[in-house]
Design a protein that fits this description.
12% of the residues are buried. This protein has a two-stranded parallel ribbon. By secondary structure, the protein is mainly alpha-helical.
Length: 172
């Protein structure tokens, strides 16, 4: 039964896609946009990336410095290990472990913050792109705009127009 339902859904999707493909002839009200191109070429995306890098570079540098400090303390402990008293060795190992824990905590926080920010920035770019695509589609009397299709004819791709509309909106 489940196999029949899956087959029915697959056939329905194929029929729908073929009807859309038939409709996508010259002058057709069906177009597409390329999300990757919007993320790489639009001024809104470039500005978001610049701000992202500016905001996260100091924290990344801090993490690199902290990692270097952990590595240095570890090397010092290995060199001085034979000549240290057991209490001194334990104290230095404790310091190294505390520093390592702090590094791991900060790295995890950094990755979490970076990923959240990246997700938010991408969502912002796509909100702007969606509004721009809507304006372009309404202005050109386009009925359907698909995003990231397997193939699209250059005459049905409105990505450049959407990027231009996004950039114009960013200028305002």
């Amino acid at each position: 039964m489940r196999h029949k339902i899956q087959r029915f859904i697959s056939i329905s999707c194929l029929l729908f896609a073929s009807s859309l493909a038939g409709a996508a002839m010259p002058g057709s009200p069906i177009t597409s946009i390329d999300a990757r191109k919007i993320l790489s070429d639009s001024r809104v995306a470039k500005e978001a990336l610049r701000k992202f890098q500016t905001d996260f570079q100091p924290r990344e540098k801090e993490l690199q410095d902290l990692a270097l400090a952990v590595k240095t303390k570890s090397a010092e402990l290995e060199k001085a290990d034979p000549g240290l008293a057991p209490s001194q060795r334990l104290a230095k190992q404790g310091e190294l472990e505390d520093l390592s824990r702090e590094l791991k905590r900060k790295q995890l926080q950094f990755v979490e913050d970076r990923d959240t920010r990246k997700r938010d920035d991408i969502q912002h770019v796509f909100r702007v792109a969606t509004l721009a695509a809507k304006k372009v589609a309404e202005g050109a009397h386009i009925d359907v705009v698909f995003q990231d299709v397997v193939y699209v004819s250059p005459r049905a791709d409105i990505t450049d127009q959407v990027i231009a509309a996004m950039d114009a909106q960013a200028d305002q």
